Amino acid sequence: MEFMTGIREKEALELSALLDRGRIGQKVKVNGAIHAIRHMGDVAFVVLRKREGLLQCVYEENTSGFDLKDLKEAETVEAEGVLTEEERAVGGVELRLTGIRILSVPTAPLPLPIGKWKLNTSLEAKLNMRSISLRNIRERAKFKLQEGIVRGFRDFLYGQGFTEIHTPKIGAKSAEGGSNLFKLDYFHRPAVLQQSPQLYKQMMVGVFDRVFETAPVFRAEKHNTKRHLNEYTSLDLEMGYIDGFEDLMEMETGFLQYTMELLAKEYQKELQILGITLPKTKQIPVVRFDRAKELVAEKYNRKIRNPFDLEPEEETLIGQYFQEEYDADFVFVTHYPSKKRPFYAMDDPEDNRYTLSFDLLYHGLEITTGGQRIHEYEKLLEKLCARGMSEEGLTQYLDTFRYGMPPHGGLGIGLERLTMKLVGEDNVRETTLYPRDLSRLEP
User: In sequence order, what are the beta bridge partners of 413?
Assistant: First the structure.
């Protein structure tokens, strides 16, 4: 009888183990994909791609125990050799090959030059062949940093007493309503794909006090811009017993500080590959919506065309203003107009044209929307009625408030947008693994 007793140590080593200088001079075994082959006469460099990065292997004619002609790019192999120090190699080590075993052979040449430092090809080509283009080290690094952002979000919120939840993405009614809904037939009943987990996470505040989720959301917006997607990943949190919406901005500032420290510590390699300087998060300025519009109108001689909305150009100028005046990478814009916020947003008691809400702009792009919610049942009904909305499909949500809810609020962060600004791209598709937009359903 055979039993599983846990994970056995493998003979083939990972990069982190190879970088242990105690193994220098030893014969080791390693597996990986052939990323590139560089011929140098009697000597050649066979570069292996591993999950942790690249390993330079040295082929020497007559001593490596195989014919270099038998190797081709994209083959997966198991290589043996002597580990030696080499300052010029990535990580300061290289493998002097003594043998190689081919694990798999590609049946076609690579369609993209992934072995080059920078993948100089169109975005469409990269997206059409996503699983190949991301084998490029620089392209892959963007998504390692995206992993770090999600990891920072989770780790920080666990440390702040939050519970992770998982809410349905198919529902009878959406949190925000409007026309930008993907509608579907659900066993002969009308249903929609959720624009956010808003209603569910609010209900769970009455259970856990503090909750968060990282999950996809869907917007049937007919936009074809560099900043919009029809499916994206939202980092959502909701917290109860708040004193005001300022508590939420403090929580997000803490998340950003924690995450930037995590990236600096654990993702230094990817930051170096992409040449990234992390944004400043020690202190983030806060400005009212109406005051922000006035500031950019005055400084950049721009007429305020719509006092109750922010145009993309205005967001860009607000980001520029606070970079120039305060050397700030982020800025919180507060008190958004009530007509631009959903029914559950709490109005400012001093001026009900505005709400106790905010957006976080990162270099002029909105990456977060949040605010305080209405937590009293009667006031929720009043807001629904004032907007001419029906209670249909909201019964269980409203019932939650009937039986008592604490003052609470929350926010949602667009993961792909945050990653895009962090890595210095200007199109959100660059930092979306498999984008869904007006024209793309594959791969």
Answer: 235, 368
